[in-house]
Design brief:
This protein is an all-alpha fold. The protein has seven helices and two strands, in the order H-H-H-H-H-E-H-E-H. It has a two-stranded antiparallel ribbon.
């Protein structure tokens, strides 16, 4: 029987793998193919943290498979229709991540003492927040290609730039090399910065209170 500990371990492993694969996929078609699979396993591991009925979980698995399929198609077919389909599946991916973040957060705060499970769960939430906002930015960029100002000298893809921007904003580093121009992008980046500051503060306070108990 699987435990939440194993689920968090695999989820964290897949999150780190996905985080590493994305920048490496820029000039390698084989790694580009691995990226959708990496995200697929992230979604599957995240779904396993949810306390829904088996029918709902199976439905989510089907949607995760659809997400994998559309992301793979989008590598070879960059037409408007395929990109629109990818955006639609990104919406479901966002729903998965939001539900998983809430589920893990609740389970972590139900713990009565500090353990490895609590720490792994907190790290998973933080990384998933960055990926969640990355998907938000991708959807905004689809409808407005001028939503972000990218440096002219940078030759990396928009997908890599947006993932980089998301985590730079989440960690409140703020290099300023990529800036949001679109109103929705500006508001979302502000919200991500707030999450990046509040979540660690709340998590540390929770860990300290659990440790004292």
């Amino acid at each position: 029987m699987k435990t939440y500990k194993n689920k968090y371990t695999y989820l964290l492993l897949y999150l780190i793998t996905f985080f590493i694969l994305v920048p490496l996929s820029q000039h390698n078609i084989y790694i580009q193919i691995l990226v959708p699979f990496g995200f697929f396993f992230v979604i599957i591991s995240a779904i396993n943290t949810l306390n829904f009925s088996k029918k709902v979980i199976k439905f989510f698995f089907i949607l995760a498979g659809l997400s994998l399929f559309t992301n793979l198609i989008n590598i070879y077919d960059e037409t408007y229709l395929s990109e629109l389909l990818a955006v639609i599946t990104n919406i479901f991916d966002c729903i998965f991540l939001i539900l998983s973040i809430i589920a893990i957060y609740q389970k972590v705060h139900l713990e009565t003492n500090v353990n490895n499970d609590v720490i792994r769960g907190g790290i998973c939430i933080y990384i998933m927040l960055g990926i969640l906002w990355y998907l938000f930015y991708k959807m905004i960029f689809f409808f407005d290609i001028n939503a972000f100002h990218f440096p002219e000298f940078r030759k990396t893809s928009e997908s890599i730039n947006l993932l980089y921007f998301s985590f730079v904003t989440l960690t409140t580093v703020g290099y300023g090399d990529i800036t949001p121009v679109n109103n929705f992008a500006m508001i979302l980046s502000n919200l991500e910065g707030l999450c990046g500051q509040l979540f660690p503060a709340i998590s540390i306070a929770t860990l300290v209170s659990l440790y004292k108990k």
